[in-house]
Amino acid sequence: MNTLTNSYVDFFQKSIIPLPSVKVKNNSTSCSHWLIAIEGNLEKKRKYSWRVAVYPSSETGNFEWNELVYQSERFDSFNSACAHARKTEALYKKVN
After folding, report:
1. What pLDDT tens digit does each residue of the chain (96 aa) get?
2. How many CB atoms sit inside 10 A of residue 31's CB?
3. Is the Cβ–Cβ distance between 67 and 26 less than 8 Å?
4. Which of 32, 14, 25, 77 has the alpha carbon at shortest distance from 50?
5. How many CB atoms lie within 10 A of CB 82?
6. Which of 45, 60, 69, 88 is deepest in the core (most CB within 10 A)?
């Protein structure tokens, strides 16, 4: 797995999933949910790579960008990243 970095250009919030009956306190946000997102990074001229990321968040989606919990490998297509985001979402829902 690549190191956890947050150098995205595009950010798409996919879903917010409740944490399993536990609240996590990070630097400034009381976290009760997972935020699953798709991040896009411009690699070369007109060439994007995409990653799925999971952050602890509040119920309304407030999160700290530097509190990254999970980051997937890079995908060459947005559709592949979306498919992986759906799998990640299902996995995090199953934990609840």
Report:
1. 344 455 668 899 999 998 876 555 555 557 889 999 999 998 877 889 999 999 999 888 888 888 899 999 999 999 999 999 999 999 888 876
2. 22
3. yes
4. 77
5. 16
6. 88
